[in-house]
Structure formats: C-alpha cells, structure tokens
Amino acid sequence: MGSGRGLLLWALGLLCLSAALLAPAPSRAAGGVVGTPLRVCILPAEPGMDPATLLRQPERFDCATPQAEFGSGDYWVLSSDIGERSRARRPLTVRIASVWQRGLDVHVLYADGEVATETADASGISRHIELGAIVEHELPLRKAEVVRVLWHVKDAANLRGILIGPRLATRDQSTQSNLVMGAVYAAFGGLCIALVVYNLALWGALRHRFQLAYCAMVGGLLIYAVSSSGALAWLWPEIANTTRLRVNHLMLALSGAAALVFARTFFEARVFEGWMGRLTTAMVVALVTAGFGFFLFAPYAIHLADRLYALIFLAVPAVLAPMLWRAWRQRSNYLWLFAVAWALPISTAVARALHNLGLIPWNFWLDNSTILSMAAEALISSLAIAYRIRILSRERDEAITAETMARRLAETDPLTGLLNRRAFLEHSIGRTGRQTLLIADIDHFKRVNDTLGHDGGDEVLRVFARVLRASVPASALVARLGGEEFAIITHSDEPVPAEALLARLRAARMPFDLSVTASVGVCSGPLATEIEWKTLYRGADAALFDAKAAGRDRARAARPETPAAAA
Q1: What stretches in the chain show pLDDT beneath 70?
Q2: How many C-beta atoms surround the C-beta of residue 58 within 10 A?
Q3: Greatest CA span in the chain, whole angstroms?
C-alpha cells in the first residue's frame, strides 16, 4: 500500500512539474521573469562591422532562423524596437539569461542618433550578474527614447542559443526580482545549513554512513545554489562567468553522485545486492567524471563536454528506475519516502537534460528548477532519515530486549526463577568486603516427592524460592545450586538471621499444607577470588552437614578455612 501510494505521488509530481515548466511565460511573472520580452534577430559577425551602422540596418539581421542553427562563433544580436525613455525616475535595463560566452558588448541607439556602448569580457559579464543568473545592463539615461539595443556576443558556444530570454525591465522590477530570488535562495541556503548541522550532530551520536552522504549531498547543493544563483559573482566579482558555469556544472554532478551514495547507504543492503550495486557504483563514477570532465575540458571542447554531461544526467533515471523497482520487490521500508522525495529532482533532471539536448525550449524556471526541486527533496529526505533512525532505534531496542531476555534465561533457573549456579558464581566472586554464605537444603526432600509427586515437589521448590527471596536484602544474591540445595550471598554487615529464615520456612504454606523444613549452613569471609569462594563454600557445606547431623531443621555456622589450608 505504502509503495503504491509513493509511486502514484511520484507520477503526479512529474505531471505537475511538467505543466509548470511548459506553461506560457505570462503565467510566471515572478522571480527572475520580469519585464517585457524582446524579439531579437541574428547576424554572424565579420571583421570591420560597425555597431553604429548595424543599429540602423535592421534589415540585415535574420529574424527567422532558430538561434541553435547558427553554430558557435561571434554574433551581432539586434532587439526589436523599444521606443521608451530611460529616465532617472524610471531607469530601464535589458536582461538576458547567462550562457557560455567569452565577451558581451552592449550598444544602445537613441532617437537623437547617439549610441552608448559598454564592453565586457567574461569577467566583466560577472559584474552584471543578478540573482537568478540574469545578465543585466542598465541603459544610460538620455532625454531621447531608446530605439533598439545591439549585443555583440563574442565566442558564443551557442549550446542552446546565442542570446536567451531578452527582456526590457525597469530598475524597480529588477530590484523586486532580486528580492524574490534572494528570499528563495536564502531559504534554500538556510535549509541546507540547518540540515547539514543537524545531521552532522546526529552522525556524531549514531555514526550511520548515510548521514555523511546526505550531508555531502546537501553541502554540494548549497555550493551549487551559490553558483547557479549568480551569488558567486557577487562574492567574487572578478570571476569569469564561464568559470562560474563550470563550478555550477561540477557541483550539480557531485551532488547527484552524493545523492546516489546516500540512497545506497540508506536503503537496506539487500536492495543493492549483485548487479544493482555495480550499476549504482558505475553511475556515481560517471557523474563524478562528468562533473570534473566539464570543469576541466569545457574551455577547450565545450560542445563535447556539454553533450556528454547531458547524456550522463539523462541516464540517471535509468539507474533510479530499477533501484526503486528492486526496493519494491524487496519490500523496502523506505521506498515510498524516496519515491516522493525524488519525484521532482528526477523530473527536473530529465527536463534539463532534454533542454541541453535541444529538445525542450529554455525558460527561467526550468533554469532554476533544480534549486526548488532539491529543496523539496532535502526536506523529504530529512523526514526519511528521521524515519530510518526511528526504525533503527526500534530494532536496537528490540535487540537489547532480546539480548537481555536471553541473558536472563541463560542465568536463571527455569523452575524457581532464581540465579543458576553458573550465574551465581559469576556475580558472587569479586564482591568486595566481608561476605556471608548461607546454604539451605530442604530436609527429606525425597519424601516430599514421594508424597506429592514431582509436580508437587516442584511447587515446594518454588514456594521455598519465594521465601528465600522475601527474606534477604536487595543487595543479596539468591540461587538454586541444584536439586533441593539453595544458596544466599549477602554482605556481612547486612546479615540474614538463619533462625528467622528457618521460622519463615516453617510458616510458609506448602502444597496440601505439607510441613517442610530445611537445614542451613553459614560461613563468613572474603569472596574476591575463586579460591576464597571454595573456602567459603567448604565452610558453609561443613556447617550444613553439622546441622543435618544434629537433627535437621536448624542452622549451624562455621569458621572458613584459610586460603592456604584450602589450597
């Protein structure tokens, strides 16, 4: 029932996410999606082209061919006509998505014929990054209206577009976007820090491997959020934007690898037996290799690095699907939690991989979907950890109870519930201070058995044991040494008067009101070693023999032998 419900929720989560990602842009007027979309046209760059001239010749630009068909290289990108003023009370900005490019110049044509220009290399692009990884340029203030904007994109990789998501916005809209995205990223960062601290504290006490894997996953996601949000460019303004993107890809891959390690150490070991364990290990190695491969080789072969990266991420569901299937077949306790927790991350990973392969168009929330989906995953996984720890604690408590019961059964005489001889010796030898040993033997017990039968004799032994337990202090040890012979060890400063014990035995109500008496031998001395035990026992046994020889139903005390004499 639980696993079926989890798989259903997984499917529903996938459908909901797909609907959100593919919804039309006007329905997502929050966060980084602010301002008015700008239509752009493309012109491949050639030596000697003049931006002032190109701004006045929009007919030279291609507005029909999809950007991805142009390939990599240098390009001029011209916006549609704007026709608005950038004023002090309402300054205008142009915003585009951050993509792989080594330089970006912005030229603005005004109605009075003036052209304003701002140039930036890869490091200069970072200084224009806003939260949400949006590259924003503020249009210089002029009395004349802005006619259009021309971008000179240098060394564009054009993995999925030359210039993506261009929008015209006001500074107020930009500020609002930063506030919204800042709240989203701050909430995610606070969540990550809290979960890492909490689980590290738990790991210090419990030492489960899955806790470290979970902390590695959440810590990696925290660094990923810093890089993918654009905050890394705020913290390090001189970093090249391409380097920020490389860090972004690396941390996402390492987080994915840590997530698989977390799953492997979290699920029951039987889920990953055989080929499933080898497949998961191979996927972890592939993700780590993809991350470091992209980080190291993207500057030299960005298209190959990006394609391999996307294909490896697209293969992740091919590992998770049989993992969840195996967990279902093995009746895992944690399947439904993982199915719910991973619904959004798996969906977004597939959606982004399809986007990287050019099968899904770009949009802002798709670009930032990993943060939102992993926030949900981290929260639900923390519940899974709490659930796992609860189960482990319950199993531990049951094991301790079972061990305690087994130990008690091994130490207890099954008929009377007293200690047996072995346990009595283990607990007695080594007691500090002077000890007193009493050995009690039921008189004429064979007659009791002959009179009452063995069942009646057993009941006499049980009553005898209850009387002994009720007659000694809490620190005393009471045992059945065998047959009808019992022993008591007590500290000599907490004596058990033998005559009072015999009186209680005489007064005890036995089966069929049978009169039962006993003889008691008493001996005192040290009990730190086995030799001293033998000495003490020999003395009490001799005193017991004297009591029986004197007519039974009485007690006798004896002096212990010295250890030398006993040896």
Answers
A1: 1-32, 336-347, 349-381, 384, 388, 392, 395, 402-404, 406-409, 559-567
A2: 17
A3: 134
- Among residues 239, 134, 141, the alpha carbon closest in space to that of 176 is found at 134
Dist. CA 172–CA 93, nearest whole Å: 10
Digit-coded pLDDT (tens) for 185-221: 888 888 888 888 888 887 887 788 888 988 898 899 8
Our CA angle for 408, 414, 415, nearest 5°, is 145
Ramachandran sector of residue 208 (left: φ over 0; alpha: ψ -120 to 50; beta: rest)? beta
d(CA 148, CA 278): 57
Strand order in the sheet with 485-491: 477-482, 485-491, 431-442, 518-527, 555-558
Q: Are 147 and 110 in contact (CB under 8 A)?
A: yes
Following CA atoms 396, 401, 406, 408 in sequence, which dihedral angle do they give, to the nearest 10 degrees? 140
Among the listed residues 181, 189, 186, 192, the one whose alpha carbon sits nearest the alpha carbon of residue 381: 192
Are 520 and 555 spatial neighbours (Cβ–Cβ below 8 Å)?
A: yes
Per-residue pLDDT tens digits for 321-354: 888 888 888 887 777 666 666 666 666 766 666 6
- Three-class secondary structure of residue 57 per DSSP: coil
CB atoms within 10 A of CB 476: 18
Q: Which residues in 9-24 are b (16+ Cβ under 10 Å) and which e?
A: ebeebbeebeebbeee
Which ranges of 298-420 does DSSP label H, i.e. alpha helix? 302-329, 335-341, 343-356, 364-367, 369-411
CB atoms within 10 A of CB 529: 12
495/492 Cα distance (integer angstroms):
5
DSSP per position, 170-233: EHHHHHHHHHHHHHHHHHHHHHHHHHHHHHHHHHHHH--HHHHHHHHHHHHHHHHHHHHTSHHH
End-to-end CA distance of the chain: 71
For the chain, domains (ranges, CATH) are 2-22+183-396 (1.20.1070), 32-173 (2.60.40.2380), 421-566 (3.30.70.270)
Contacts 24+ apart (CB under 8 A), 411-416: 413/479, 413/480, 415/458, 415/461, 415/462, 415/480, 416/461, 416/462, 416/464, 416/465, 416/480
Distance from C-alpha of 464 to C-alpha of 458, rounded to nearest angstrom: 10
Closest listed residue to residue 262, CA positions, set 215, 216, 214, 312: 214
Give the dihedral sign, CA 124/125/130/132.
Answer: negative
Average confidence score pLDDT of the chain: 84
Element housing 252 (H / E):
helix 241-266
Angle at Cα 393 formed by Cα 389 and Cα 394, nearest 5°? 120
Residue type, 140: P
